[in-house]
Structure formats: C-alpha cells, structure tokens
Write a structure and sequence with these properties.
- The chain has 99 residues and is mainly alpha-helical.
- It has helices at 3-14, 19-26, 30-38, 45-55, 59-63, 88-95.
- GO terms for molecular function: DNA binding.
C-alpha cells in the first residue's frame, strides 16, 4: 500500500463510506478504488480532487503523510475545491499550490 492509497482508505473509512459508495460518487468502478487503496494504481489529479471533494477533505490530507489537516488552506480559493469546474491544467496548478 502506498501513502496516497493509505490516506484515501483512512479518509474514506472516517466518512463511514464503502469503496463502492465512493466509486459511485466519483463515477468510477469500485475495483478502481480498491486498486488506489492497495497501491496497485495511483489516481490522476482530477480523480484525487473528486475524492477529496466527496470526502470533504483538503488535497493535502491525501497527499501528505499526516491525516491531521481538515481545514481548507487559506491560500487556496474555495472554488478550486470544485473539480467539476476545473480543467486539467488548473488541477495541476492547484496541487502544486501555484494558485
């Protein structure tokens, strides 16, 4: 299991959500969520944003080694947390804090 996968699983479980429920909400197959959580696959940038939106957590929770952050960082505008309105280049800027 990789760090991102572990953080996805921990965050999903904290929300009392099954892999199947998360998969449905981000519109992927439930096998994809299992692959992310076991480290067999790594989600792309847009998928990470969707997961974070559904679980109501900041991207740093998935990307960092600690799961203690639950607040949206002040330097990132709230609208950047809505992946439906972001294109791919905006997602990369968001994840690299070039906002």
């Amino acid at each position: 299991m990789n760090l991102i996968g572990k953080n996805i699983k921990t965050s999903r479980e904290r929300c009392n959500m099954s892999q199947k429920e998360l998969a449905h909400k981000i519109r992927v197959g439930s096998a994809k969520i299992e692959k992310y959580e076991t480290g067999e696959s790594i989600p792309d940038t847009l998928t990470i944003l969707k997961i974070c939106t559904v679980l109501d957590i900041p991207v740093s929770t998935i990307m960092n080694s600690g799961l203690h952050s639950t607040q949206i960082p002040e330097h990132i505008p709230y609208e950047m947390y809505n992946p439906q309105e972001l294109n791919e280049s905006e997602c990369y800027r968001f994840l690299n804090h070039d906002v």
